[in-house]
């Protein structure tokens, strides 16, 4: 099974890019972020024609998340991150797909910092940590994937010097991510490529794409049940090279679900 995450940076503007990627790479599950569209503007018909059922939560002009499933419909579990009933930003979806629990998230950027946007980022991160703690030891296989808006270490950025004041590199942000992993989650891309500089995002300034001046901010985390199934992980860099592309590239994992240990049958006494 191939599961991917992709910040599309506007699903209406870049629908052709999305459909081309789905046709070429055929992920079984695709988590999308930054739809920048209301629910009624989501291209359900076009995605259905491409072979994908969808669950989505839109928002005007920014945010918005979706889970796509090839040949089936995701089964909704929840439409928001627990912990703040007053939070109206569309940043989290959770669904069951072919026996997996899939969490799709778009963590707040947090810039400029310090300030209220950074405070919101950290508060949202704390809510994610609390919710993830209920999933990491679940008997069900769980994957939490999306745009985390955190560069975990200096190894995950081309050059941290000019980004030191950015919310993505702040010690508080990195500490939240480290505490999340410490629960027992596997950072799949880093696990497969421990010594390779792998990037998932290249901004539009100063020819960062052309010079491979990237950041790793899109992550796919596997809980303890799912981690043994990890076969491969990578980035579909060719999508970032398309004309008028998103500043993110799809990031993915391949899983061998046959590796999952079935529960031992109870012995009769």
From TrEMBL:
The keyword Transmembrane does not apply. Its EC number is 3.1.11.2. It is an enzyme of class 3 (hydrolase). GO terms for molecular function: double-stranded DNA 3'-5' DNA exonuclease activity. Gene3D superfamilies: Endonuclease/exonuclease/phosphatase. Keywords: Hydrolase, Magnesium, Metal-binding. Pfam families: Exo_endo_phos. Residues 4-248 form the Endonuclease/exonuclease/phosphatase domain. Its cofactor is Mg(2+). The keyword Metal-binding applies. PROSITE patterns: AP_NUCLEASE_F1_4. Belongs to the DNA repair enzymes AP/ExoA family. PANTHER family: EXODEOXYRIBONUCLEASE III. This is Exodeoxyribonuclease III. The gene is xth.
């Amino acid at each position: 099974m191939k599961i991917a995450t992709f910040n599309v940076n506007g699903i209406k503007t870049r629908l052709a890019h999305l459909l081309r990627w789905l046709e070429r790479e055929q992920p079984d599950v695709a988590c999308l972020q930054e739809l920048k569209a209301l629910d009624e503007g989501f291209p359900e018909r076009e995605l259905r024609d491409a072979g994908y059922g969808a669950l989505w939560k839109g928002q005007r002009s920014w945010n918005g998340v979706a889970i796509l499933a090839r040949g089936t419909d995701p089964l909704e579990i929840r439409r928001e991150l627990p912990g703040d009933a007053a939070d109206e930003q569309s940043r989290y979806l959770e669904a069951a797909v072919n026996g997996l629990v899939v969490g799709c998230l778009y963590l707040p950027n947090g810039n400029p910092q310090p300030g209220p946007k950074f405070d919101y980022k950290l508060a949202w991160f704390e809510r994610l940590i609390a919710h993830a703690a209920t999933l990491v030891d679940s008997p069900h296989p769980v994957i939490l994937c999306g745009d985390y808006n955190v560069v975990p270490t200096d190894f995950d950025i081309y050059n941290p010097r000019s980004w030191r004041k950015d919310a993505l590199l702040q010690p508080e942000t990195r500490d939240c991510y480290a505490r999340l992993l410490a629960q027992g989650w596997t950072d799949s891309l880093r696990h497969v490529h421990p010594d390779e500089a792998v990037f998932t995002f290249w901004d539009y300034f100063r020819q960062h794409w052309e010079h491979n001046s990237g950041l790793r901010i899109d992550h796919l985390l596997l809980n303890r049940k799912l981690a043994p199934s990890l076969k491969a992980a990578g980035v579909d860099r060719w999508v970032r090279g398309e004309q008028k592309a998103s500043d993110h590239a799809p990031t993915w994992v391949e899983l061998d679900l046959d590796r999952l240990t079935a529960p031992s049958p109870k012995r009769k006494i």
